[in-house]
Amino acid sequence: MMRAVDLPPSKLVFPLAKLPRRLAAIGYDGLLLTGVLFVAAALALGLAVILVGSAAFEAHNPLVGNPFFRSYLLLVCFFFYGGFWVHGGQTLGMRAWRVRVRRHDGRGIGWWQALLRFLIASLWLAPVAYLHQVFKLGIGLSLGAGFACLLLLLALRLPDRFSETELVVLPKGGNG
């Protein structure tokens, strides 16, 4: 007789992560990502000061409104999530809430699936930027609309569907 610990990961059946658990992991990861972005921005600011000089930097910050800087921060975000997802299936927030991303057959995900998950999950930012930049709505109202879009994305499991992955809840002690 085979026990669950003797079965390969592709044969184990875990329940899908519900919305509150997914939101908790997102909140935890959001705090960690904020710190990572602070460090990434500090590195970019230091490089900008070295390249343009401190006097020129004080007169005009070349990073403000710079699409390359925004793209750099977006790449930092992707590699934060993608790196964790591809190498172990869990970010630190997912680990704390015993959630793992995997393919439907139980195997880990690749970079292409990580990119699809990241892009689809990031769609909630579009209404935030649009409402704030185009309609000049306050950041609070714009973030509220974005949060509603995030809830919809997660409730419909769109990142999972488009990347052909699933978020499962691991048993206690099953984060290894």
Please explain how this structure is put together:
The chain has 176 residues and is mostly helical. It has one domain (16-169). Helices cover 61% and strands 6% of the residues. It has helices at residues 19-52, 54-59, 67-86, 92-96, 111-121, 125-133, 139-155, 158-163, and strands at residues 99-103, 165-169. It has a two-stranded antiparallel sheet with strand order 1-2. The radius of gyration is 19 Å and the shape is globular.
Mean model confidence by pLDDT: 91
What is the SS-derived class?
Answer: mainly alpha
Strand fraction equals 5-15%
Q: What gap, in angstroms, lies between the N and C termini?
A: 24 Å
3D shape:
globular
What is this structure's SSE topology?
Blueprint: H1 19-52, H2 54-59, H3 67-86, H4 92-96, E1 99-103, H5 111-121, H6 125-133, H7 139-155, H8 158-163, E2 165-169
Antiparallel strand pairs: 1-2
